[in-house]
Amino acid sequence: MPLLEAALNLSRFHKEHERFYASSPLETALRLQRHARALQALADRWTAAVPSEHPAPSPHAGAEDLNSEAATALEGVLFLEGEGRPAEMTAMIGALRADADAFAAGGNWLADAMQASWNVAAALLEIDALADVMGERHRIIANDWLAAHEQSLIAVLLVRAADMLDRVELTPAALRADLAGARVAPGRLYAAAEVVSRAADLCCESAELVHDNERRWRVTRGRIEEVVQAMASGGDPASPRGADGEPRREEVGG
User: Fold this and answer.
1) In which residue ranges is the amino acid composition biased (Basic and acidic residues) (predicted)?
2) Which residues in 54-64 are b (16+ Cβ under 10 Å) and which e?
């Protein structure tokens, strides 16, 4: 039966695909949290720092009033007297935008795929022998659909964080002028760190949703295989097992 063959294909390849996406977002979350901690460390430093009126004469000297040892250790961010925006800050902003593009594309693709899966699952409702695993199949779709929306939200959060950082002129001269006046830069970095941290949290939630599908895929695939085998042998496709994958127990009157 083509419908069952398609369902088996999905339960095989998409299960393996999801194993990757149950862990990959966690790696991204760690990287985003590192970005956020570096931004928080710089903001902490700039909140209390007294801007230097006599910076070191060497263009390669580190800016004593602007650098944070924590930010340097976490992301390599180092403000030098004779240079402009640190290359590491430029790389961080670029990475945020690149991650946003990837999450936006992934979220859109997954949402479209789940709409198609939802439609296919409606056809599976007609197969009585699969009735006991339809809850599992629909839970998989619901988990993935929610993960898709979370990925789309992660994307817009990361774009906004990058926009926040682009509004800060991250050069020693501009930062010292800001620290001598309104001190807007620390606030912008705190805000960006907050947004990036939330995106990291959503990465973890997305991974958890996909991980929840592992057992559900196994149970659903096992049940479909039993039905296919029964139909191929000309037998009754009614399941000898329950939705939990355990053999059914006949009720015995007593």
Assistant:
1) 243-254
2) ebeeeeeeebe
Residues 35, 98 contacting (CB under 8 angstroms) = no
Where along the chain do its domains lie?
A: 2-49+86-232
- Paired tokens of 21: 């996406």
Non-local (6+) Cβ contacts of 138 within 8 A are: 121
SS3 content of the chain, % helix, strand, coil (to 5): 75, 0, 25
3-class state of residue 241 by DSSP: strand
Q: Which residue has the tokens 């935008």?
A: 97
Q: Closest by alpha carbon to 168, among 193, 145, 133, 148?
A: 193
Q: Which tens digits make up the pLDDT trace of 159-194?
A: 999 999 999 999 999 999 999 999 999 999 999 999
What residue type is assigned to position 64 of the chain? E
Q: Which of 66, 39, 53, 92 is nearest to 172 (CA)?
A: 66
The pair of three-digit structure tokens given for residue 3, joined into one six-digit string: 């419908």
Measure CA of the first residue to CA of the last residue in the chain; give whole Å. Answer: 41
Between 220 and 143, where is the model more confident?
Answer: 143
Give the type of residue at 229.
Q
> What is the distance between the alpha carbons of residues 111 and 119, in angstroms, rounded to a whole number?
13
Q: Is the pLDDT of residue 90 over 90?
A: yes
CA separation for the pair 219, 214 (Å, rounded): 9
